[in-house]
UniProtKB/TrEMBL annotation:
This is IP05688p. It comes from Drosophila melanogaster (Fruit fly). It comes from the Eukaryota. Residues 19-61, 100-135 are annotated as: Disordered. Residues 102-135 have a biased composition (Basic residues).
């Protein structure tokens, strides 16, 4: 008798991950209803715990935010008070708010002054150039 080696390609393929119906004959077991209810209950408990944790975190965040806002408002009031005490109150009282017409008049005057200054400078430059040309 001659013994021959079996080629590698003749070996059985690996078992599939999902059991197929033919594996039932070889002793594969199926899940029962009790195991599925246990797992579903466990998953529900986990979800409830996660929801509780999320709610607690949200409450803590809301508390910290409200505290931060209160602190910010208090600090702002303190800053305003300190600014008022540092500035001269008399100067604020002496100069009331200007009307829109007064502001426009001031702007016009300032513009006229600016343009006059610019014109004077231009004239001076022209005179200097003329003097240089004459020399």
């Amino acid at each position: 008798m001659f013994y021959t080696k079996i080629p590698v390609c003749w070996t059985l393929p690996p078992m599939p991950l999902k059991p197929s119906p033919r594996h039932k004959f070889f002793g594969a077991t199926t899940r029962t209803a009790t195991t599925t209810t246990r797992t579903s209950n466990y998953l529900q408990q986990q979800q409830q715990q996660q929801q509780k944790q999320q709610q607690e975190q949200l409450q803590q965040q809301n508390e910290t935010l409200s505290n931060n806002i209160k602190n910010f408002n208090n600090n702002e009031k303190i800053m305003q008070l300190s600014y008022i005490t540092k500035s001269n109150v008399n100067s604020v009282i002496k100069f009331p708010a200007m009307s829109v017409k007064d502001k426009k008049k001031l702007n016009k005057k300032n513009k006229c002054k600016r343009t006059r200054k610019v014109e004077k400078k231009k004239k001076k430059k022209k005179k200097k150039k003329k003097k240089k040309k004459k020399k």
